[in-house]
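Sequence, please.
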């Protein structure tokens, strides 16, 4: 039994990311699970600074007192696992551009995701050969519009139609939805805690988990942190990383206290540790609305 935190090393963790990591740690430790760290660096493999960003993310998580079991797992070092998993799935080559999908698909979902309309589902061999001369294909899994329901700790039951989503991008990189599921199954992750921007991906991922023979995990999607305008918190919102805050004299302990306060687990500026928070933590009492970072 394990929970995990799985950042992408695109930039330093901000307060919202750190808060989600804290909730993931509390839920895992509070239920006697191991807590794993996975660096989701498939997108950033060609970005030279990614290892340093990941190292800072790990240092920041440690600085607020979170601990992990085992060594961090780096997705960029597990490419054969993803290829092996793809080989067990029923997939087909897709040559569609984003634009073609936008033109052919029905309206995007609330999160901007456009379900794939299946344009390349039944191409003939000759059509595929012709298309390959113009551009490399992505691989899509044949999901047959399966309907999948997941249970989220806070959102309750979430049902989604599973479209033929991409499992290997047309640059050969395993897609996020594939890699995350392959790793969760391989690492024995049965509790997925992350930002609620990914809630709508969970039926797709749960369906794939079943295809790969894994047990569907329990999900807990944490409301995002937003700025004073209600927009998703970002680096440009000012002092939102440990490094920024450190420059203005705020310590990691004070940041932990602030995160705990935002979760209703501590008074303002009360000194706390993750272990002390664990004793007070009640998942059912967690705030359900976005956290406004002033
Ligand atoms: N790597 C993803 C992110 O940083 C999280 C994936 C997940 O937790 O499933 O947004």
């Amino acid at each position: 039994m394990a929970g995990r935190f799985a950042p992408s090393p695109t930039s330093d963790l901000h307060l919202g990311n750190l808060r989600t990591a804290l909730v993931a740690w509390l839920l895992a430790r509070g239920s006697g699970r191991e807590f794993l760290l996975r660096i989701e660096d498939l997108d950033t493999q060609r970005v030279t600074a990614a290892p340093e960003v990941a190292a800072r993310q790990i240092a920041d998580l440690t600085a607020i007192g979170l601990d992990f079991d085992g060594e961090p797992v780096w997705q960029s070092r597990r490419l054969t696992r993803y290829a092996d998993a793809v080989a067990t799935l029923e997939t087909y080559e897709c040559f569609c551009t984003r634009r073609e999908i936008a033109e052919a698909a029905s309206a995007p979902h609330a999160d901007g995701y456009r379900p794939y309309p299946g344009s390349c589902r039944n191409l003939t061999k000759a059509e595929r050969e012709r298309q390959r001369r113009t551009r490399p294909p992505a691989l899509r899994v044949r999901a047959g519009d399966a309907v999948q329901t997941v249970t989220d700790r806070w959102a309750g039951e979430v049902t989604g139609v599973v479209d033929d989503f991409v499992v290997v991008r047309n640059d050969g990189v395993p897609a996020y939805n594939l890699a995350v599921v392959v790793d969760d199954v391989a690492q024995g992750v049965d509790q997925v805690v992350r930002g609620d921007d990914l809630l709508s991906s969970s039926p797709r991922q749960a369906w794939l988990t079943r295809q790969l023979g894994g047990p569907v995990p329990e999900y807990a999607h944490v409301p995002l942190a937003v700025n004073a305008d209600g927009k998703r918190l970002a680096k440009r919102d000012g002092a939102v990383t440990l490094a920024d805050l450190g420059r203005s004299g705020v310590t990691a302990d004070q940041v932990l206290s602030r995160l705990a306060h935002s979760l209703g687990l501590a008074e303002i500026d009360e000194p706390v540790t993750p272990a002390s928070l664990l004793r007070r933590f009640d998942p059912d009492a967690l705030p359900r609305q976005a956290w406004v970072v002033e």
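The pocket of glutamic acid is lined by residues 6-8, 40, 180, 194, 198 (CB under 6 Å).
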